[in-house]
Amino acid sequence: MPQGQVSVTPDDGLTTRQRRNRPLLVVHTGVMKGKSTAAFGMALRGWNQGWSIGVFQFVKSAKWKVGEEEAFRALGTVHEQTGQGGPVEWHKMGSGWSWSRRKGSETDHAADAVEGWAEIRRRLRDERHGVYVLDEFTYPLKWGWISVDEVVEALTERPGHQHVIITGRDAPQALIDAADLVMETTKIKHPMDDGQKGQRGIEW
Amino acid sequence: MPQGQVSVTPDDGLTTRQRRNRPLLVVHTGVMKGKSTAAFGMALRGWNQGWSIGVFQFVKSAKWKVGEEEAFRALGTVHEQTGQGGPVEWHKMGSGWSWSRRKGSETDHAADAVEGWAEIRRRLRDERHGVYVLDEFTYPLKWGWISVDEVVEALTERPGHQHVIITGRDAPQALIDAADLVMETTKIKHPMDDGQKGQRGIEW
């Protein structure tokens, strides 16, 4: 149960209930690893609410695979077989978006990223998912492949009750301004400082 | 795949492989929510490796329930039925530790906490799990119910390949010193600042 204390009563004309159920735009940014891990942890809670989970990884390589993918796919199967939790879709740019006729180009990542965002925008309009994880989505924004203004507009105007969680370094200021919750994980101490390389089960 | 660069080659007599597979002691601390969420996200990766996951929540109330609990229990069932991933155990102090004959006392939390730690210590000795999540474990340390020195000793001397993830505010310095990885999630912006209360699927 949440322990947080509300420090201010807002003057926004909403009831507490309306405010409580406001869908959130969450940004996990900062230089540390762990941003995506935290986002997927948050999506676990949404799954348990029976919400549809849509994960969109803006990664270049088809080989990129984190342990969370298998775990969420298993949870999607649990939902299909027993009705527990919510449905799960997991899409990756590098392997070619599953809905796309184009193979992941491995050459024109900008076009792939634009195509991914166009699909997400359609889904937001159609209220397709309860939780969207746009993993590593700050990079195509940073590199100018996708318009930040367009993203902020689409997110701000999204209908219904759709939570959106965006991860990646260097989130643009306009995105941070539009977000309800911005988290940054900072490292106090990390094994790579001592020359340890990443290991399975921990880093992926 | 991990992108981290190793900046230092350590002079510890270990091979890269040995160092890579060193079991980690991870502490998620700081005042923000999201510590447990990040820890459970990390445990998802361990589950996918087929490791046994043991969660021990040092919470006072039997009613405390986060969405992750149902999700992990579902993953445990997936493992039992299909062999995918690893087994999952989820124990809570407030409801009376499942292995204990005593009911959760709701009156003597110190005794309950001590009992929980004694069991974890036995399991570490027996190499029972691949990943331990000791959720909210810093509080019984902070309140002096459990000896920090004893915990650090047991963790430092734990045999085999057992990752331990500890969450909670105000982690004692001796625990931070012993840890391989210490993470702190900081808030840049949070909806509770605007008077929004916690909501299901997000905060629990």
* CATH third-level topology of chain A: Rossmann fold
Radius of gyration of chain A: 17 Å
Work out the number of β strands of chain A: 6
The helix fraction of chain A, in percent, is 25-40%
Strand numbers in spatial order across the main sheet of chain A: 3-2-4-5-1-6
Number of helices of chain A: 7
CATH architecture of chain A: 3-Layer(aba) Sandwich
- Let me know the largest β-sheet of chain A: 6 strands, parallel
Low-confidence stretches of chain A are 1-7
CATH fourth-tier homologous superfamily of chain A: P-loop containing nucleotide triphosphate hydrolases
* Oligomeric state of the chains present here: homodimer
Number of domains of chain A: 1
How would you describe the shape of chain A? globular
Percent range for β-strand residues of chain A: 15-25%
Instruction: Please give the alpha-carbon distance between the first and last residues of chain A.
Output: 29 Å
Instruction: Using the coordinates above, name the CATH class of chain A.
Output: Alpha Beta
Biggest interface, chains and residue tallies: A-B, 78 and 78 residues
Instruction: Average the pLDDT over all residues of chain A and give the rounded result.
Output: 84
InterPro entries (chains A, B): CblAdoTrfase_CobA, P-loop_NTPase
Enzyme class (chains A, B): transferase
Protein name (chains A, B): Cob(I)alamin adenosyltransferase
Region (Disordered) (chains A, B): 1-20
